[in-house]
Design goal:
mainly alpha, Cyclin A, domain 1, 24 helices, 2 strands, extended
C-alpha cells in the first residue's frame, strides 16, 4: 500500500525564530553600509522623536518603498553598489550629508543638523550670498572694498569729471535699432514722395532766433496792457449767469478747461510762411486742396472738428517737410484719414478714402503716408482745439442766436482758405467770425461779447478787414464753401455775406494800414 509521506512542519524554538527574524531584517539593510546605515538611521529617528519633528515620516515611507523595490534584485558589486548607495542615501534628508560620496568639485560634507528649520535658514543664507556675489561680479571685478558713502566733496569732483573719464559704454544694439528705424523711414518717404530738406535742418537753429513771431496781430506792450485793463474791468463788473443744472456746459470746470486750451494754442500752430521752403506747391494749390477737403468732409457727413484737425495736420506737416506736387493730395487725404480716426465715432474706412481719390492712391500708400505724417508730428493730434470750442462759449452772449452762429460758422470756414490766417490763434478766429457776423447783421460788440471772447473791438478790426477782402475777391463765390452755405439748411449764409462784403469793402480802410503797431 502506497503512502504519501507528508512533512509536518516542526515547531521552532525561540532561538530559531530569533535567528530567522534577524535574517529577514538583514535583507532590508543596505548592503554597502550594513554596519553604519542602521545605527545612524535609528539614532536620527530617535533625535527626530525627541525634537518633535513630524516630517520624518516622509523619509520612512520613501525608505520603505526603495527597500521593497530592491528586495528582489541581485546583490550589486563594484560601481553598481556605489550608485545604489547614492540613490538610497537621498531618500533620508537628515543623513544625506553622510551618505552621498564626495564627487568632483564638492566640498566636504557638513555635520548633520538636528533641527530642520536651522538647515533651511543656512541654505537660504547660502543662496543669498551666492546671488550677491553674482551681482557684484557684474558691476566690476576691481571692487573689493566695502561700500562707503561718499562725501559731498567727492560727489562734486565726480560731477566735474569729463565724460571721457567716466565708465560709460554704448550699447551697439541701440545703434543697430536706430539704423533700422532710419532705413524704414527713408523707405516710407520714397514711397509717398516726401523729401526732407537738409539745408532747412542746418539753418533751423539760427532761423528760430531771427524769425518773426507767429502770432498775429503784433501789438506793443503799452497797447497790450491797455487791452488787459479793459478786459479786467469788464470781468469785475459783468455778472455771468451760470446754470449749475446744465451738465453739458460743465460750468464748474469751464474756466480751467479754456485756460488749458489757451496754453495749447501756440503749440499746435503751423509756420505761417512755410510755403517759402516748398519747391513745387504754392498758396493757390493749398487753397484748392482745402476746398477739396471741404467737399470730402461734407460728402461723408463728418463732424466740424474733423475738418479743422485735418487742415491743421496738413499745415503742420508742410511746415516740416518738403512735398512734391504729385503727392499733395495724398497728404490731404491722409490728414483727413487721421482726423476722422481721432474725432469720429464711426470713421470711414481706408478703402473709402481710396475711392475719394478716384483710385489715385492705393491703400498701402495711404497707410504708409499715415505713418510718416504721425512720426513727423510726433503723434501730436489732440493738442489742436478748433475755433468752434470758443464759438460755443461766445454764443452765450446773444443766447445762441441761430442766424449769428450760422453766419459765423461760414466766416470761420472761409479763413481756412486764406493763408494769412495761419498766424491767428483759433480763439481769435472764433472772435473775428462772431464779430463779422454781428457787424453784418447790424449788431454791436457789447460787454457780454468782450467778456466771453476775451477780445475788445479794436483787437478784432484788422481780422474783420482781411475777411471782408477775401469775400469780395472775384470768383470767390465759385468755391465749394460758398456752395455749401448757399443751401437753405444754412440759411443761405454765403450769399448774404458775399453781397454785404462787396457793398462795404470800399468803406473800410485797407488792412495794411489797420495793422495794430505802436
Amino acid at each position: 500500500m502506497a503512502t504519501n509521506h507528508v512533512r509536518i512542519p516542526q515547531r521552532r524554538s525561540l532561538a530559531q525564530r530569533a535567528k530567522a527574524d534577524e535574517n529577514a531584517m538583514s535583507r532590508h539593510l543596505r548592503q554597502a553600509s550594513q554596519n553604519t546605515a542602521g545605527p545612524l538611521r535609528l539614532a536620527t529617528k530617535e533625535n527626530a522623536v525627541k525634537t518633535g519633528v513630524v516630517r520624518q515620516a516622509l523619509g520612512e515611507v520613501t525608505m520603505a518603498a526603495v527597500n521593497r523595490k530592491d528586495a528582489g534584485l541581485k546583490p550589486a558589486t563594484g560601481k553598481e553598489k556605489e550608485e545604489i548607495g547614492l540613490k538610497r542615501g537621498r531618500s533620508d534628508s537628515t543623513s544625506c550629508a553622510q551618505r552621498v560620496p564626495l564627487g568632483p568639485g564638492r566640498a566636504p560634507a557638513a555635520a548633520p543638523v538636528a533641527n530642520p528649520v536651522n538647515a533651511r535658514v543656512a541654505v537660504a543664507r547660502a543662496r543669498a550670498s551666492y546671488a550677491a556675489t553674482r551681482r557684484a561680479s557684474r558691476v566690476s571685478t576691481s571692487i573689493s572694498q566695502p561700500i562707503v558713502v561718499p562725501t559731498q566733496d567727492e560727489v562734486d569732483v565726480v560731477k566735474d569729471l569729463p565724460q571721457s573719464e567716466m565708465d560709460i559704454e554704448d550699447d551697439p544694439s541701440d545703434d543697430q535699432e536706430d539704423e533700422v528705424e532710419v532705413a524704414n523711414e527713408r523707405e516710407v518717404e520714397n514711397m509717398i514722395g516726401v523729401e526732407h530738406s537738409d539745408e532747412e535742418e542746418d539753418e533751423e537753429e539760427p532761423a528760430q532766433e531771427s524769425k518773426h513771431p507767429r502770432i498775429w496781430p503784433e501789438i506793443g506792450t503799452e497797447r497790450a496792457l491797455r487791452y488787459a485793463k479793459e478786459l479786467q474791468a469788464i470781468r469785475e463788473t459783468f455778472h455771468d449767469e451760470v446754470d449749475m443744472y446744465d451738465t453739458t456746459m460743465v460750468s464748474e470746470y469751464a474756466e480751467e478747461i479754456f485756460e488749458y486750451m489757451c496754453d495749447l494754442e501756440e503749440e499746435a500752430m503751423p509756420q505761417p510762411d512755410y510755403m517759402s521752403n516748398q519747391t513745387e506747391i504754392t498758396w493757390e494749390m493749398r487753397q484748392t486742396l482745402v476746398d477739396w477737403l471741404l467737399q470730402v468732409h461734407f460728402r461723408y457727413h463728418m463732424l466740424p472738428e474733423t475738418l479743422w484737425i485735418a487742415i491743421n495736420v496738413v499745415d503742420r506737416f508742410l511746415s516740416r517737410r518738403v512735398v512734391s506736387l504729385g503727392k499733395l493730395q495724398l497728404v490731404g487725404v491722409t490728414a483727413m484719414f487721421i482726423a476722422a480716426k481721432y474725432e469720429e465715432i464711426l470713421a470711414p474706412s481706408v478703402e473709402e478714402f481710396v475711392f475719394m481719390t478716384e483710385n489715385g492712391y492705393t491703400k498701402e500708400e495711404i497707410l504708409k503716408g499715415e505713418r510718416i505724417v504721425l512720426q513727423t508730428l510726433e503723434f501730436r493730434v489732440s493738442h489742436y482745439c478748433s475755433p468752434y470750442s470758443w464759438m460755443r462759449k461766445i454764443s452765450k452772449a446773444d443766447d445762441y442766436d441761430i442766424q449769428t452762429r450760422t453766419l459765423s460758422k461760414f466766416l470761420t470756414e472761409v479763413t481756412l482758405l486764406d493763408h494769412r490766417f495761419l498766424k491767428v490763434k483759433p480763439s481769435l478766429i472764433a472772435a473775428i467770425g462772431m464779430y463779422c457776423a454781428r457787424k453784418m447783421l447790424g449788431g454791436d460788440w457789447n460787454e457780454a461779447f468782450v467778456f466771453y471772447s476775451g477780445f475788445t473791438e479794436e483787437q478784432l478790426l484788422p481780422g474783420h478787414q482781411l475777411l471782408v477782402e477775401k469775400l469780395a475777391e472775384s470768383g470767390f463765390s465759385k468755391q465749394y464753401v460758398c456752395k455749401k452755405y448757399a443751401n437753405k439748411k444754412f440759411l443761405k449764409a454765403s450769399v448774404f455775406a458775399i453781397d454785404w462784403a462787396k457793398q462795404h469793402v470800399n468803406d473800410l480802410a485797407p488792412a495794411e494800414t489797420m495793422m495794430i503797431v505802436d
